[in-house]
Amino acid sequence: MIMRWLKNNILPFIARHSSTTGLIRYAGADLIFPFYHTVSDEYLPHIHPLYRPKTTKEFYEDLDLLLKYFQPVDIDTVYSHCSGIKTIVRPSFHLSFDDGLRGIYDIVTPILYKKGIPFTVFVNSDFVDNRNLFFRHREALEVQSIDPDAFLNEKRPYLSTVQLKEMQRKGVHIGAHSTDHAHYNFLEEKQQISRTLESCAFVKKVFEQKLTTFAFPFTDTGISDSFFEAVYPVVDLTFGISGIYFRHNGRHIGRIDMEKYGCNARECINKALLVKKYRQIWNSSK
Ligand SMILES: [Zn+2]
User: Fold this and answer.
1) CA 284, CA 178: separation in Å to the nearest integer?
2) For the packed helices 189-207 and 161-169, what is the interaxial angle rounded to 10 degrees?
3) Is 245 among the domain residues?
4) Is the dihedral of CA 38, 208, 82, 180 positive or negative?
5) Alpha carbon distance 126, 153 (integer Å)
6) How far is CA 42 from CA 39, 89, 110, in A?
7) H helices of the chain, where?
8) How far is the CA of 16 from the centre of ligand 1 (A)?
9) Model confidence over 78-102: pLDDT tens digits?
10) Is the pTM higher than 0.85?
11) Domain presence at residue 199
């Protein structure tokens, strides 16, 4: 109870008033994974009722902060580091974007390509080419009395195969994010495994990449060890949310939600670094 109170009240305060360089050293974080969904200067009716994406101005500010303290690395470098082939020596980051939204093609790719920042986009096989709507996006549209199917056909809110292949030629890595973005905690383990492997097989077949990566829809909390054992022969790296951590021999990687708290990059990163240190202290005191 006291620890939770400290985490929710004291950590954000310290995060706002600490130096990032000091915290990187203090937390011992050599590689971080900030993630977003999209970037937009316009109101997006399928997104804004759920969370607020960064504007382009805010995104540029986030990138300035990240580039000040960390160097950008691509997914191959991440894999080499996590599998112990070649260790990263300077503090580094790898960016990713979930749900395969079209703003990644329209807005994010041109910005990051120009800056030479490699990144990963995690797509749901059911939404690529606007075949179907994510149920949360559908709900957001319905509460505003917008016809979800008409919206899907007219606005084409998700990335197409053609757009993804063009992004791939610019160095973007494509990862899987399940078939339909179900809550894995509500599924039987057999279904969790099949939806994971089906989405990974789709990405592998269409994009023919060396590495197979997967980011959990919603959360990686509550996923059993046997799930990881079942998917790792096929999947090289898996990604969760909730901060900075490496589990399952470095193959399961935590990411930092850059949209969740509505704060700037400095606060998000500092808070994640502090939570990492706090977890180390908490675990060693048990
Ligand atoms: Zn998602």
Assistant:
1) 35
2) 70
3) yes
4) positive
5) 15
6) 9, 39, 17
7) 2-5, 11-16, 20-27, 56-69, 75-82, 103, 109-115, 135-143, 148-155, 161-169, 189-207, 225-231, 265-284
8) 28
9) 999 998 888 898 999 999 999 999 9
10) yes
11) yes
Residue 44 lies in a domain: yes
| Residue listed under structure tokens 């470095």 | 250
Asked whether 213 and 236 are in contact (CB, 8 A), the reply is: yes
Nearest CA to 258 out of 246, 248, 247, 244 is that of 244
CATH number, position 147: 3.20.20.370
Q: Ligand 1 mean position to 123 CA, how many Å?
A: 8
Separation of CA 285 and ligand 1 centre (Å)? 34
- The whole domain housing 68 covers 30-266
Q: Express each pLDDT in 173-229 by its tens digit.
A: 999 999 999 999 999 999 999 999 999 999 999 999 999 999 999 999 999 999 999
- The verdict on residue 197 lying in a domain is yes
What total number of domains does the chain contain? 1
Interval between CA 121 and ligand 1 midpoint (Å): 11
